[in-house]
Amino acid sequence: MEMKEMQTKLLQRKKEMGGRIRSLTRPLHQRKHIRIMEDRVNQVLQATKSFDKLLCSNQALRDEIDHLRRQRCSFALMYQRLSRELLSQHNVMEDLVEKSVLAYDQRSEALARMLAVRERSKKDTSLCHTEMTELKRVIDHEIKLRSFMVQKGLSRRERMGGESLETYQAVHRLLLEVSGDSDLRQLGRTFVENEEKSFAYFNYINELNNNSTMLKDRINKLRVRVHTHTRHRTELEQRCGLANNLESQYTVVLKFLDQHKTAISHLFDKMKCNPAPITGRLGCSAQVTDDNVTQFIGRWTLLDNPSLSQPVGNAKALIRTTFFMNSKENFTQDIQVIIILLFHF
């Protein structure tokens, strides 16, 4: 049984393999397929080797790039540090240049001053020598003149020795008559005291004169300030009067405009004009206001009805006539012109 089963399995296996001929030719196809697969494996191995080489070179390049990046960071830090040092060096150079320019200017000024001092010293020296020569000449002349006067005085004193005593006695008697005091020392002390009092009075008078001058200056300044304040007060009063006048005129104008706005509104209603174009354009109510009064008056010019043109003209004439009758004495010329332009169309 087992033999039959084995034979049956062999036959079945041969059928699956294609019989005997197919089993003989199969190793050839297998060897060819093996060669093809070996060639493919070799190609894959070569490609794998090439890929491995590329991976190795890529890794080396990555390492080199990382190294270069680290070097770039270090170089950037070094560049920043060197830039700061260069900037500080430039600042130091600029400071040194400014200091050198200032020192050069000071040196030039000092040299100019030295030259001026030398020239002045030379001039002073020459002037001093000239003055010394002149003074020596004057001193010699004074010495000669004094010796001459001494000789003359001696001779005159010898001649007038007797007359001097009489002269002194006459002066003494005159002082006694004037002062009433016979003591010459007391008379001298009194004279000195009077001189001191006179000097004190003189100083006091000078102080009073100075104070008087200062007070006069202050008075003049106060007068100028008072005049300025008076002028400003006059201008302020004039401006206040003008403002009050304008305010009263403004009140009259407002009253006049309110009256005429009421009249325009009644006239607009009597003429049965349609205010829709005005209210639609302005987006406001149908009442006559300061903003739309000119539009209400201008609306009259658009009337094509001959029966209403005459009343409109009469109304315009009535408004202008009433305005001029009421405003000639109450309004200024400028306000009259403004209101005329307001009602002109």
UniProtKB/TrEMBL annotation:
<protein>
    <recommendedName>
        <fullName>ODAD1 central coiled coil region domain-containing protein</fullName>
    </recommendedName>
</protein>
<keyword id="KW-0175">Coiled coil</keyword>
<dbReference type="InterPro" id="IPR051876">
    <property type="entry name" value="ODA-DC/CCD"/>
</dbReference>
<dbReference type="GO" id="GO:0036158">
    <property type="term" value="P:outer dynein arm assembly"/>
</dbReference>
<dbReference type="GO" id="GO:0005930">
    <property type="term" value="C:axoneme"/>
</dbReference>
<dbReference type="GO" id="GO:0003341">
    <property type="term" value="P:cilium movement"/>
</dbReference>
<dbReference type="Pfam" id="PF21773">
    <property type="entry name" value="ODAD1_CC"/>
</dbReference>
<dbReference type="InterPro" id="IPR049258">
    <property type="entry name" value="ODAD1_CC"/>
</dbReference>
<feature type="domain" description="ODAD1 central coiled coil region">
    <location>
        <begin position="31"/>
        <end position="283"/>
    </location>
</feature>
